[in-house]
């Protein structure tokens, strides 16, 4: 992996406490959720499947000794010339697949389905995910606060609350970098350096990793970005294989890329892989969590998970699948808005982020006026000084969090001005204890028992689980532990 990268920096100016700038900031905040942009299209991620091939999506969970027949392996029906020959070929192939599975060590695959609520499994369109849950371990997982995409994806792979790992929002500033703004396009290691992701720990331990899209996985973690153009990034650690996010890359291509990595010989085959899907979150934002379009997106991603399971069986590759979401989704409505200018004078503050929550800096010389007006309960909203935020949120000590923070009731949105309108559809970022913010968790594979439903837990516990599966030692410095899984994991009981 090259140690120097040339990348330009995306500069964004500060919003000023006047109406045009406030409105522009609000538009940016509303636009931010999953990855916000698509770079130039990547080349093909994999070789296309042979013509005539078919894919059958099995609903039984993967296992090291599962031996599917010819049709389950995706062979065309024309291959069955007669019943006797087909039976013989099926037995031979099944024996070979079983033997191969026994020879291969399980790979750990972390799958994120952005914005997937656990109750989406109740819509009758998820045969593959539902079967994996029934044949493995499942739970309604609580995201970390704030229930936003980048903070929670970084929590899932670091085991730290956003307040401790530094990605405190999708959009943020740091006093050490005055005049700069972190966005979901930022890959300067500076922003990501406060907590080490599991793939970096694994690579340092000699465990090969690969990431098919994951926030922060393109960052040369621990590296240094030059101040002067062309802003070379030196040193740092990335996954051995990684792909820059591009929304135009189809679900099929994402799955195919993972499968291609796992086709490699053992010496170059990754032992930890991530995979990311964004379409359920996108549909939830555009149409709302209860919409037909969102249900269709749920069904589509379920099909991709089924493809992954089928391909793993074809390869004879045992896998521990850990399937998660970063947050849920709540329905929004233009009538459910809180105008910030009805609470405080816009001349007294500068907005950093806004939507389900608002984070604000006082304007110099206006600190006392803002402090008198903002903290406390307001209709459908509560505001705090950052030092006084509720302890259960585990949020408010990081210098990247602005001095004032307001949180709307679930389903309500904060807008800058009385004249601004909210939007219909869906959003997240609300109280992480709200039922609509709960996130999917399914784990299935040789390390997990069948048919186990766990009590709800916070997503800081996922990274310690991943460390157990990959073979990394426990890290007592993390916010999370493997306690929710310790007595069910095979080999740890």
Q: Helical stretch count?
A: 12
The largest sheet, given as strand count, sense and whether it forms a barrel, is:
8 strands, mixed
Arithmetic mean of pLDDT:
84
Extract low-pLDDT stretches: 1-28, 37-96
Oligomer: single chain
The main sheet orders its strands as 7-4-8-2-9-19-3-20
Give a structural overview.
With 493 residues, this protein is of the alpha/beta class. Helices cover 26% and strands 16% of the residues. The protein is built from 12 helices and 20 strands. The protein has helices at 19-31, 83-103, 127-134, 149-158, 162-165, 189-192, 198-204, 251-262, 279-287, 292-315, 367-373, 462-470; strands spanning 4-5, 107-113, 137-141, 209-212, 224-225, 233-234, 241-243, 272-277, 319-324, 330-332, 337-339, 349-353, 357-362, 376-378, 381-385, 404-408, 413-415, 425-427, 439-444, 452-453. Strands 7-4-8-2-9-19-3-20 form an 8-stranded mixed beta sheet, with helices on both faces. Strand 5 (224-225) and strand 6 (233-234) form a beta hairpin. Helix 4 (149-158) crosses helix 12, helix 8 (251-262) runs parallel beside helix 10 and helix 9 (279-287) packs antiparallel against helix 10 (292-315).
Tag the structure with descriptive keywords.
493 residues, eight-stranded mixed sheet, 12 helices, 20 strands, globular, disordered N terminus
Short structural description:
Helix 8 runs parallel beside helix 10 (292-315). The protein is an alpha/beta fold. The chain has twelve helices and 20 strands.
